[in-house]
Amino acid sequence: MYGFEALTFNIHSGYLEAIVRGHRAGLLTTADYNNLCQCENLDDIKMHLSATKYGSYLQNEPSPLHTTTIVEKCTLKLVDDYKHMICQATEPMSTFLEYIRYGHMIDNVVLIVTGTLHERDVQELIEKCHPLGMFDSIATLAVAQNMRELYRLVLVDTPLAPYFSECLTSEDLDDMNIEIMRNTLYKAYLEDFYKFCQKLGGATAEIMSDLLAFEADRRAVNITINSIGTELTREDRKKLYSNFGLLYPYGHEELAICEDIDQVRGVMEKYPPYQAIFSKMSYGESQMLDKAFYEEEVRRLCLAFEQQFHYAVFFAYMRLREQEIRNLMWISECVAQNQKSRIHDSVVYMF
Amino acid sequence: MSMVDASSWGAALVRISPYTFSAIGIAISIGVSVLGAAWGIYITGSSLIGAAIEAPRITSKNLISVIFCEAVAIYGVIVAIILQTKLESVPTSKMYDAESLRAGYAIFASGIIVGFANLVCGLCVGIIGSSCALSDAQNSTLFVKILVIEIFGSALGLFGVIVGIIMSAQATWPTK
Description:
The structure holds two protein chains of two kinds.
Chain A: H1 9-25, H2 30-37, H3 42-49, H4 55-58, H5 67-88, H6 93-117, H7 122-128, H8 147-153, H9 175-200, H10 202-227, H11 234-239, H12 250-256, H13 261-268, H14 272-278, H15 287-304, H16 312-336
Helix pairs in contact in A: 5-6, 5-16, 6-9, 9-10, 10-15, 15-16
Chain B: H1 9-14, H2 18-54, H3 58-85, H4 98-138, H5 142-169
Organism (chain A): Eruca vesicaria subsp. sativa (Garden rocket)
Protein name (chain A): V-type proton ATPase subunit
GO biological process, one term (chain A): proton transmembrane transport
Protein backbone atom coordinates (compact mmCIF):
# COMPACT_ATOMS: atom_id res chain seq x y z
CA MET A 1 0.00 0.00 0.00
CA TYR A 2 1.39 3.37 -0.90
CA GLY A 3 2.73 5.16 2.14
CA PHE A 4 3.30 2.04 4.24
CA GLU A 5 6.24 0.59 2.35
CA ALA A 6 8.49 1.61 5.20
CA LEU A 7 7.04 -1.20 7.28
CA THR A 8 8.14 -4.09 5.09
CA PHE A 9 10.63 -2.82 2.54
CA ASN A 10 13.65 -3.40 4.73
CA ILE A 11 12.95 -7.10 5.15
CA HIS A 12 14.30 -7.91 1.71
CA SER A 13 15.88 -4.77 0.40
CA GLY A 14 17.01 -2.64 3.34
CA TYR A 15 20.61 -3.74 3.17
CA LEU A 16 20.86 -3.23 -0.58
CA GLU A 17 19.24 0.19 -0.44
CA ALA A 18 21.80 1.25 2.15
CA ILE A 19 24.59 -0.10 -0.05
CA VAL A 20 23.40 1.73 -3.12
CA ARG A 21 23.16 4.96 -1.16
CA GLY A 22 26.73 4.40 -0.04
CA HIS A 23 27.76 4.03 -3.68
CA ARG A 24 25.93 7.22 -4.53
CA ALA A 25 28.08 9.04 -2.01
CA GLY A 26 31.08 7.95 -4.06
CA LEU A 27 29.97 9.65 -7.28
CA LEU A 28 32.25 12.44 -8.46
CA THR A 29 31.31 15.95 -7.39
CA THR A 30 31.84 19.26 -9.14
CA ALA A 31 35.10 19.76 -7.23
CA ASP A 32 36.40 16.43 -8.54
CA TYR A 33 35.45 17.37 -12.07
CA ASN A 34 37.21 20.71 -11.70
CA ASN A 35 40.36 18.90 -10.62
CA LEU A 36 40.11 16.55 -13.54
CA CYS A 37 39.61 19.37 -15.99
CA GLN A 38 42.88 20.91 -14.83
CA CYS A 39 44.85 17.80 -15.76
CA GLU A 40 47.49 18.01 -18.41
CA ASN A 41 47.61 14.39 -19.51
CA LEU A 42 46.03 11.02 -18.88
CA ASP A 43 48.46 10.09 -16.12
CA ASP A 44 47.29 13.12 -14.15
CA ILE A 45 43.73 11.94 -14.61
CA LYS A 46 44.69 8.51 -13.33
CA MET A 47 46.33 10.11 -10.31
CA HIS A 48 43.24 12.16 -9.50
CA LEU A 49 40.98 9.19 -9.98
CA SER A 50 43.08 7.10 -7.61
CA ALA A 51 41.71 9.19 -4.74
CA THR A 52 38.14 8.31 -5.72
CA LYS A 53 36.35 4.97 -5.71
CA TYR A 54 37.93 4.15 -9.06
CA GLY A 55 41.36 3.99 -7.51
CA SER A 56 41.62 0.25 -7.10
CA TYR A 57 40.48 -0.31 -10.67
CA LEU A 58 43.03 1.95 -12.30
CA GLN A 59 46.08 1.50 -10.16
CA ASN A 60 47.50 -1.49 -12.01
CA GLU A 61 47.35 0.01 -15.45
CA PRO A 62 50.72 0.49 -17.16
CA SER A 63 51.79 4.00 -17.94
CA PRO A 64 50.87 4.86 -21.54
CA LEU A 65 47.15 5.01 -20.77
CA HIS A 66 44.46 5.20 -23.40
CA THR A 67 41.06 6.76 -22.95
CA THR A 68 39.44 3.44 -23.79
CA THR A 69 41.28 1.79 -20.90
CA ILE A 70 40.04 4.40 -18.46
CA VAL A 71 36.47 3.98 -19.67
CA GLU A 72 36.74 0.21 -19.60
CA LYS A 73 38.01 0.07 -16.03
CA CYS A 74 35.42 2.52 -14.80
CA THR A 75 32.70 0.47 -16.46
CA LEU A 76 34.13 -2.54 -14.65
CA LYS A 77 33.39 -0.83 -11.35
CA LEU A 78 29.79 -0.27 -12.41
CA VAL A 79 29.49 -3.93 -13.37
CA ASP A 80 30.98 -5.10 -10.06
CA ASP A 81 28.54 -2.95 -8.10
CA TYR A 82 25.65 -4.25 -10.16
CA LYS A 83 26.66 -7.88 -9.75
CA HIS A 84 27.06 -7.48 -6.02
CA MET A 85 23.56 -6.03 -5.78
CA ILE A 86 21.83 -8.52 -8.00
CA CYS A 87 23.27 -11.58 -6.29
CA GLN A 88 21.89 -10.33 -2.97
CA ALA A 89 18.50 -9.34 -4.33
CA THR A 90 15.26 -11.29 -3.99
CA GLU A 91 12.12 -11.06 -6.08
CA PRO A 92 10.77 -8.64 -7.19
CA MET A 93 13.91 -6.59 -6.91
CA SER A 94 15.99 -9.07 -8.88
CA THR A 95 13.58 -8.76 -11.81
CA PHE A 96 13.77 -5.00 -11.50
CA LEU A 97 17.56 -5.08 -11.64
CA GLU A 98 17.45 -7.45 -14.63
CA TYR A 99 15.33 -4.94 -16.50
CA ILE A 100 18.09 -2.40 -16.16
CA ARG A 101 20.35 -4.65 -18.25
CA TYR A 102 18.03 -5.14 -21.18
CA GLY A 103 18.74 -1.70 -22.61
CA HIS A 104 22.42 -2.58 -22.79
CA MET A 105 21.61 -5.94 -24.35
CA ILE A 106 19.70 -4.21 -27.11
CA ASP A 107 22.63 -1.87 -27.72
CA ASN A 108 25.05 -4.79 -27.88
CA VAL A 109 22.87 -6.73 -30.32
CA VAL A 110 22.68 -3.73 -32.63
CA LEU A 111 26.42 -3.13 -32.30
CA ILE A 112 27.28 -6.65 -33.37
CA VAL A 113 24.78 -6.77 -36.20
CA THR A 114 25.93 -3.41 -37.57
CA GLY A 115 29.56 -4.40 -37.23
CA THR A 116 28.98 -7.64 -39.05
CA LEU A 117 27.25 -5.75 -41.82
CA HIS A 118 30.34 -3.62 -42.20
CA GLU A 119 32.53 -6.73 -42.21
CA ARG A 120 34.26 -6.32 -38.90
CA ASP A 121 35.68 -9.22 -36.92
CA VAL A 122 33.29 -10.70 -34.35
CA GLN A 123 35.84 -10.92 -31.54
CA GLU A 124 36.72 -7.28 -31.97
CA LEU A 125 33.06 -6.35 -31.74
CA ILE A 126 32.50 -8.47 -28.67
CA GLU A 127 35.27 -6.62 -26.89
CA LYS A 128 33.49 -3.35 -27.58
CA CYS A 129 30.20 -4.56 -26.14
CA HIS A 130 28.97 -3.21 -22.84
CA PRO A 131 29.64 -5.84 -20.14
CA LEU A 132 26.22 -5.42 -18.57
CA GLY A 133 24.53 -6.45 -21.78
CA MET A 134 26.40 -9.64 -22.46
CA PHE A 135 24.59 -12.91 -22.79
CA ASP A 136 25.76 -16.37 -23.71
CA SER A 137 25.06 -16.75 -27.37
CA ILE A 138 26.06 -13.26 -28.38
CA ALA A 139 28.74 -14.37 -30.79
CA THR A 140 26.21 -16.27 -32.86
CA LEU A 141 24.63 -12.98 -33.86
CA ALA A 142 27.27 -12.59 -36.55
CA VAL A 143 25.85 -15.53 -38.46
CA ALA A 144 22.34 -14.19 -38.98
CA GLN A 145 21.39 -12.69 -42.34
CA ASN A 146 17.95 -11.27 -41.63
CA MET A 147 15.78 -10.57 -38.63
CA ARG A 148 13.90 -13.85 -38.66
CA GLU A 149 17.16 -15.75 -38.45
CA LEU A 150 18.40 -13.37 -35.79
CA TYR A 151 15.37 -14.17 -33.71
CA ARG A 152 15.29 -17.89 -34.36
CA LEU A 153 18.98 -18.56 -33.86
CA VAL A 154 19.91 -16.37 -30.95
CA LEU A 155 17.35 -14.07 -29.47
CA VAL A 156 14.56 -16.49 -28.73
CA ASP A 157 16.51 -17.78 -25.73
CA THR A 158 17.33 -14.39 -24.32
CA PRO A 159 15.09 -12.10 -22.26
CA LEU A 160 14.72 -9.91 -25.37
CA ALA A 161 12.51 -12.50 -27.10
CA PRO A 162 9.13 -10.93 -26.22
CA TYR A 163 10.22 -7.59 -27.65
CA PHE A 164 10.68 -9.01 -31.11
CA SER A 165 7.10 -9.65 -32.03
CA GLU A 166 6.71 -6.21 -33.58
CA CYS A 167 9.74 -6.23 -35.77
CA LEU A 168 10.01 -9.68 -37.25
CA THR A 169 10.43 -9.30 -40.98
CA SER A 170 12.31 -11.30 -43.54
CA GLU A 171 14.04 -8.31 -45.04
CA ASP A 172 17.77 -8.34 -45.11
CA LEU A 173 19.54 -6.25 -42.55
CA ASP A 174 20.85 -2.90 -43.66
CA ASP A 175 21.64 0.30 -41.77
CA MET A 176 18.15 1.72 -41.88
CA ASN A 177 16.45 -1.52 -40.85
CA ILE A 178 18.88 -1.96 -38.01
CA GLU A 179 18.10 1.46 -36.63
CA ILE A 180 14.40 0.76 -36.92
CA MET A 181 14.95 -2.57 -35.20
CA ARG A 182 16.85 -0.89 -32.38
CA ASN A 183 14.12 1.65 -31.82
CA THR A 184 11.32 -0.90 -32.01
CA LEU A 185 13.06 -3.16 -29.51
CA TYR A 186 13.71 -0.25 -27.20
CA LYS A 187 10.11 0.87 -27.44
CA ALA A 188 8.87 -2.61 -26.46
CA TYR A 189 11.42 -2.75 -23.64
CA LEU A 190 10.39 0.63 -22.21
CA GLU A 191 6.71 -0.26 -22.32
CA ASP A 192 7.37 -3.58 -20.63
CA PHE A 193 9.48 -1.94 -17.93
CA TYR A 194 6.79 0.69 -17.41
CA LYS A 195 4.10 -1.94 -16.96
CA PHE A 196 6.29 -3.85 -14.53
CA CYS A 197 6.87 -0.75 -12.42
CA GLN A 198 3.16 0.04 -12.41
CA LYS A 199 2.55 -3.46 -11.11
CA LEU A 200 5.02 -2.91 -8.28
CA GLY A 201 3.03 0.10 -7.17
CA GLY A 202 3.84 2.59 -4.44
CA ALA A 203 6.74 4.98 -4.58
CA THR A 204 8.60 2.79 -7.08
CA ALA A 205 5.78 3.13 -9.60
CA GLU A 206 5.52 6.87 -9.10
CA ILE A 207 9.20 7.69 -9.44
CA MET A 208 9.95 5.18 -12.19
CA SER A 209 6.96 6.40 -14.20
CA ASP A 210 8.45 9.86 -14.17
CA LEU A 211 11.93 8.67 -15.13
CA LEU A 212 10.73 6.29 -17.84
CA ALA A 213 8.32 8.85 -19.26
CA PHE A 214 11.17 11.30 -19.62
CA GLU A 215 13.25 8.60 -21.33
CA ALA A 216 10.42 7.78 -23.73
CA ASP A 217 9.86 11.44 -24.59
CA ARG A 218 13.55 12.06 -25.08
CA ARG A 219 13.82 9.11 -27.43
CA ALA A 220 10.79 10.35 -29.34
CA VAL A 221 12.45 13.73 -29.87
CA ASN A 222 15.74 12.14 -30.89
CA ILE A 223 14.03 9.79 -33.32
CA THR A 224 12.19 12.75 -34.83
CA ILE A 225 15.29 14.87 -35.21
CA ASN A 226 17.39 12.03 -36.60
CA SER A 227 14.77 11.04 -39.13
CA ILE A 228 14.24 14.49 -40.57
CA GLY A 229 15.36 14.29 -44.18
CA THR A 230 15.59 10.50 -44.31
CA GLU A 231 13.16 8.26 -46.11
CA LEU A 232 11.39 7.16 -42.93
CA THR A 233 7.68 7.75 -43.50
CA ARG A 234 5.45 9.49 -41.00
CA GLU A 235 3.56 6.31 -40.09
CA ASP A 236 6.79 4.43 -39.55
CA ARG A 237 8.10 7.22 -37.41
CA LYS A 238 4.95 7.22 -35.32
CA LYS A 239 5.26 3.47 -34.79
CA LEU A 240 8.60 4.00 -33.07
CA TYR A 241 7.19 6.23 -30.32
CA SER A 242 6.35 4.58 -26.97
CA ASN A 243 2.80 4.39 -25.70
CA PHE A 244 3.30 6.37 -22.54
CA GLY A 245 4.86 9.57 -21.38
CA LEU A 246 3.93 13.20 -21.39
CA LEU A 247 3.88 13.38 -25.18
CA TYR A 248 1.50 10.48 -25.65
CA PRO A 249 -0.71 10.65 -27.69
CA TYR A 250 -1.15 14.22 -28.91
CA GLY A 251 2.51 15.20 -28.88
CA HIS A 252 3.33 12.13 -30.94
CA GLU A 253 0.76 13.15 -33.57
CA GLU A 254 2.45 16.51 -33.88
CA LEU A 255 5.99 15.21 -33.78
CA ALA A 256 5.28 12.71 -36.53
CA ILE A 257 4.65 15.49 -39.02
CA CYS A 258 7.63 17.67 -38.11
CA GLU A 259 10.08 18.41 -40.86
CA ASP A 260 12.67 20.56 -39.14
CA ILE A 261 14.00 21.40 -35.74
CA ASP A 262 12.05 24.61 -35.27
CA GLN A 263 8.82 22.69 -35.72
CA VAL A 264 10.00 20.19 -33.11
CA ARG A 265 10.71 23.09 -30.80
CA GLY A 266 7.23 24.45 -31.43
CA VAL A 267 5.69 21.14 -30.44
CA MET A 268 7.82 20.67 -27.32
CA GLU A 269 7.29 24.16 -26.00
CA LYS A 270 3.66 23.34 -25.34
CA TYR A 271 4.74 21.08 -22.49
CA PRO A 272 6.06 23.07 -19.50
CA PRO A 273 8.77 20.62 -18.37
CA TYR A 274 10.27 20.50 -21.85
CA GLN A 275 9.81 24.17 -22.51
CA ALA A 276 12.44 24.82 -19.86
CA ILE A 277 14.87 22.61 -21.77
CA PHE A 278 14.25 24.14 -25.14
CA SER A 279 14.34 27.67 -23.88
CA LYS A 280 18.02 27.24 -23.03
CA MET A 281 18.86 26.96 -26.70
CA SER A 282 18.55 29.75 -29.21
CA TYR A 283 16.84 29.18 -32.51
CA GLY A 284 18.41 26.87 -35.02
CA GLU A 285 20.87 25.33 -32.56
CA SER A 286 20.65 21.61 -31.95
CA GLN A 287 24.03 20.60 -30.60
CA MET A 288 23.15 21.72 -27.11
CA LEU A 289 20.00 19.61 -27.10
CA ASP A 290 21.78 16.42 -26.07
CA LYS A 291 23.49 18.13 -23.18
CA ALA A 292 20.24 19.83 -22.10
CA PHE A 293 18.46 16.49 -22.05
CA TYR A 294 21.28 14.88 -20.08
CA GLU A 295 21.17 17.68 -17.53
CA GLU A 296 17.43 17.30 -17.07
CA GLU A 297 17.82 13.53 -16.73
CA VAL A 298 20.53 13.93 -14.08
CA ARG A 299 18.36 16.40 -12.18
CA ARG A 300 15.47 13.92 -12.08
CA LEU A 301 17.74 11.02 -11.15
CA CYS A 302 19.20 12.93 -8.23
CA LEU A 303 15.67 13.68 -7.02
CA ALA A 304 14.93 9.95 -6.91
CA PHE A 305 17.24 9.68 -3.91
CA GLU A 306 15.09 12.02 -1.86
CA GLN A 307 12.65 9.26 -0.97
CA GLN A 308 13.44 6.11 0.91
CA PHE A 309 12.07 2.55 0.59
CA HIS A 310 11.67 2.18 -3.17
CA TYR A 311 13.57 0.56 -6.03
CA ALA A 312 14.05 3.60 -8.24
CA VAL A 313 17.26 4.47 -6.38
CA PHE A 314 18.93 1.48 -8.02
CA PHE A 315 17.91 2.59 -11.48
CA ALA A 316 18.98 6.14 -10.70
CA TYR A 317 22.36 5.05 -9.40
CA MET A 318 23.10 2.96 -12.51
CA ARG A 319 22.15 5.83 -14.78
CA LEU A 320 24.18 8.36 -12.82
CA ARG A 321 27.24 6.10 -13.00
CA GLU A 322 26.79 5.76 -16.73
CA GLN A 323 26.60 9.54 -17.04
CA GLU A 324 29.74 9.84 -14.95
CA ILE A 325 31.54 7.40 -17.24
CA ARG A 326 30.41 9.48 -20.22
CA ASN A 327 31.79 12.55 -18.50
CA LEU A 328 35.10 10.84 -17.81
CA MET A 329 35.34 9.71 -21.40
CA TRP A 330 34.76 13.23 -22.66
CA ILE A 331 37.27 14.73 -20.25
CA SER A 332 39.89 12.10 -21.12
CA GLU A 333 39.40 12.64 -24.83
CA CYS A 334 39.67 16.41 -24.48
CA VAL A 335 42.80 16.12 -22.38
CA ALA A 336 44.38 13.54 -24.65
CA GLN A 337 43.71 15.62 -27.74
CA ASN A 338 44.72 18.87 -26.07
CA GLN A 339 41.35 20.55 -26.55
CA LYS A 340 40.67 21.56 -22.97
CA SER A 341 38.64 24.57 -24.01
CA ARG A 342 35.88 22.22 -25.15
CA ILE A 343 35.69 20.27 -21.92
CA HIS A 344 32.74 22.21 -20.56
CA ASP A 345 30.68 21.60 -23.67
CA SER A 346 29.64 18.18 -22.64
CA VAL A 347 30.32 17.53 -18.97
CA VAL A 348 27.14 17.25 -16.92
CA TYR A 349 27.74 18.07 -13.27
CA MET A 350 25.79 16.09 -10.74
CA PHE A 351 26.40 17.60 -7.34
CA MET B 1 -27.90 -9.46 37.20
CA SER B 2 -30.91 -7.52 36.09
CA MET B 3 -29.14 -5.25 33.63
CA VAL B 4 -28.84 -7.72 30.83
CA ASP B 5 -31.14 -10.27 29.29
CA ALA B 6 -30.22 -13.83 30.01
CA SER B 7 -29.77 -14.78 26.38
CA SER B 8 -28.14 -11.75 24.72
CA TRP B 9 -24.58 -11.05 23.72
CA GLY B 10 -24.23 -8.77 26.71
CA ALA B 11 -24.94 -11.72 28.97
CA ALA B 12 -22.29 -13.79 27.25
CA LEU B 13 -19.76 -11.00 27.66
CA VAL B 14 -20.26 -10.52 31.37
CA ARG B 15 -20.05 -14.25 31.94
CA ILE B 16 -16.46 -14.34 30.71
CA SER B 17 -14.22 -14.57 33.72
CA PRO B 18 -12.41 -11.32 34.55
CA TYR B 19 -9.27 -13.36 34.93
CA THR B 20 -9.46 -14.23 31.24
CA PHE B 21 -9.48 -10.59 30.35
CA SER B 22 -6.64 -9.86 32.76
CA ALA B 23 -4.48 -12.64 31.42
CA ILE B 24 -5.07 -11.60 27.83
CA GLY B 25 -4.24 -8.02 28.75
CA ILE B 26 -0.96 -9.01 30.31
CA ALA B 27 -0.10 -11.17 27.30
CA ILE B 28 -0.84 -8.38 24.85
CA SER B 29 1.15 -5.93 26.90
CA ILE B 30 4.37 -7.88 26.61
CA GLY B 31 3.74 -9.67 23.33
CA VAL B 32 2.76 -6.75 21.14
CA SER B 33 5.39 -4.46 22.67
CA VAL B 34 8.09 -6.94 21.80
CA LEU B 35 6.63 -7.21 18.31
CA GLY B 36 6.98 -3.46 17.92
CA ALA B 37 10.51 -3.44 19.27
CA ALA B 38 11.64 -6.28 17.03
CA TRP B 39 10.06 -4.72 13.97
CA GLY B 40 11.80 -1.44 14.70
CA ILE B 41 15.14 -3.08 15.31
CA TYR B 42 15.18 -4.97 12.05
CA ILE B 43 14.14 -1.90 10.06
CA THR B 44 17.00 0.10 11.57
CA GLY B 45 19.50 -2.72 11.64
CA SER B 46 19.36 -3.66 7.98
CA SER B 47 19.92 -0.08 6.84
CA LEU B 48 22.63 0.45 9.43
CA ILE B 49 24.61 -2.58 8.30
CA GLY B 50 24.45 -1.64 4.63
CA ALA B 51 25.34 1.98 5.23
CA ALA B 52 28.24 1.09 7.52
CA ILE B 53 30.05 -0.66 4.68
CA GLU B 54 30.89 2.58 2.94
CA ALA B 55 30.94 4.72 6.09
CA PRO B 56 32.16 2.65 9.05
CA ARG B 57 32.20 5.62 11.38
CA ILE B 58 28.41 5.60 11.78
CA THR B 59 28.12 2.29 13.58
CA SER B 60 28.73 3.31 17.18
CA LYS B 61 26.56 6.42 17.16
CA ASN B 62 23.65 4.82 15.36
CA LEU B 63 23.31 2.03 17.85
CA ILE B 64 21.32 4.60 19.83
CA SER B 65 18.42 3.99 17.44
CA VAL B 66 18.51 0.30 18.28
CA ILE B 67 18.61 1.14 22.00
CA PHE B 68 15.52 3.33 21.66
CA CYS B 69 13.67 0.47 20.01
CA GLU B 70 14.82 -1.89 22.73
CA ALA B 71 13.48 0.50 25.38
CA VAL B 72 10.02 -0.08 23.96
CA ALA B 73 10.26 -3.79 24.75
CA ILE B 74 11.43 -2.97 28.27
CA TYR B 75 8.34 -0.80 28.82
CA GLY B 76 6.20 -3.78 27.88
CA VAL B 77 7.99 -6.05 30.35
CA ILE B 78 7.71 -3.53 33.18
CA VAL B 79 4.01 -3.00 32.67
CA ALA B 80 3.40 -6.74 32.40
CA ILE B 81 5.13 -7.27 35.74
CA ILE B 82 3.14 -4.45 37.34
CA LEU B 83 -0.10 -5.84 35.95
CA GLN B 84 0.49 -9.32 37.20
CA THR B 85 0.99 -8.01 40.72
CA LYS B 86 -2.52 -6.56 40.48
CA LEU B 87 -4.08 -9.99 40.13
CA GLU B 88 -5.81 -11.18 43.29
CA SER B 89 -8.02 -14.11 44.07
CA VAL B 90 -11.65 -13.43 44.82
CA PRO B 91 -14.12 -16.00 46.10
CA THR B 92 -16.28 -17.63 43.46
CA SER B 93 -19.41 -15.94 44.72
CA LYS B 94 -17.95 -12.57 43.97
CA MET B 95 -16.25 -13.43 40.69
CA TYR B 96 -18.95 -11.89 38.51
CA ASP B 97 -19.63 -8.84 40.66
CA ALA B 98 -19.40 -5.50 38.98
CA GLU B 99 -16.25 -4.64 40.84
CA SER B 100 -14.50 -7.81 39.80
CA LEU B 101 -15.41 -7.20 36.23
CA ARG B 102 -14.11 -3.67 36.49
CA ALA B 103 -10.77 -4.87 37.78
CA GLY B 104 -10.53 -7.43 35.00
CA TYR B 105 -11.38 -4.89 32.33
CA ALA B 106 -8.93 -2.37 33.78
CA ILE B 107 -6.04 -4.79 33.51
CA PHE B 108 -7.14 -5.81 30.01
CA ALA B 109 -7.32 -2.19 28.83
CA SER B 110 -4.01 -1.35 30.40
CA GLY B 111 -2.42 -4.22 28.54
CA ILE B 112 -3.90 -3.16 25.21
CA ILE B 113 -2.90 0.45 25.71
CA VAL B 114 0.69 -0.37 26.46
CA GLY B 115 0.97 -3.06 23.81
CA PHE B 116 -0.29 -1.05 20.89
CA ALA B 117 1.33 2.22 21.92
CA ASN B 118 4.65 0.41 22.05
CA LEU B 119 3.97 -1.30 18.72
CA VAL B 120 3.62 1.96 16.84
CA CYS B 121 6.38 3.60 18.85
CA GLY B 122 8.78 0.81 17.94
CA LEU B 123 7.83 1.12 14.29
CA CYS B 124 8.24 4.88 14.35
CA VAL B 125 11.64 4.79 16.00
CA GLY B 126 12.76 2.02 13.67
CA ILE B 127 11.88 3.86 10.48
CA ILE B 128 13.44 7.09 11.69
CA GLY B 129 16.51 5.16 12.80
CA SER B 130 16.87 3.74 9.30
CA SER B 131 16.73 7.19 7.73
CA CYS B 132 19.09 8.46 10.41
CA ALA B 133 21.71 5.85 9.56
CA LEU B 134 21.49 6.59 5.84
CA SER B 135 21.66 10.35 6.31
CA ASP B 136 24.53 10.13 8.78
CA ALA B 137 26.49 8.10 6.24
CA GLN B 138 26.18 10.94 3.74
CA ASN B 139 26.51 13.93 6.04
CA SER B 140 27.49 13.57 9.66
CA THR B 141 25.99 16.87 10.79
CA LEU B 142 22.51 15.44 10.29
CA PHE B 143 22.76 12.80 12.99
CA VAL B 144 21.93 14.91 16.02
CA LYS B 145 19.01 16.62 14.31
CA ILE B 146 17.39 13.37 13.29
CA LEU B 147 18.02 11.98 16.76
CA VAL B 148 15.76 14.72 18.14
CA ILE B 149 12.95 13.41 15.94
CA GLU B 150 13.62 9.94 17.26
CA ILE B 151 13.42 11.13 20.85
CA PHE B 152 10.01 12.62 20.17
CA GLY B 153 8.98 9.33 18.62
CA SER B 154 10.06 7.30 21.61
CA ALA B 155 8.00 9.57 23.86
CA LEU B 156 4.91 7.94 22.35
CA GLY B 157 5.70 4.67 24.05
CA LEU B 158 6.16 6.51 27.30
CA PHE B 159 2.66 8.04 27.02
CA GLY B 160 1.26 4.56 26.61
CA VAL B 161 3.09 3.31 29.69
CA ILE B 162 1.90 6.22 31.82
CA VAL B 163 -1.75 5.79 30.88
CA GLY B 164 -1.45 2.04 31.28
CA ILE B 165 -0.12 2.36 34.78
CA ILE B 166 -2.84 4.84 35.73
CA MET B 167 -5.47 2.44 34.39
CA SER B 168 -4.03 -0.49 36.28
CA ALA B 169 -3.99 1.51 39.53
CA GLN B 170 -7.75 1.26 39.66
CA ALA B 171 -7.76 -2.49 39.31
CA THR B 172 -9.16 -3.11 42.79
CA TRP B 173 -10.78 -6.47 43.31
CA PRO B 174 -13.65 -6.85 45.80
CA THR B 175 -12.50 -7.64 49.32
CA LYS B 176 -13.43 -11.04 50.75
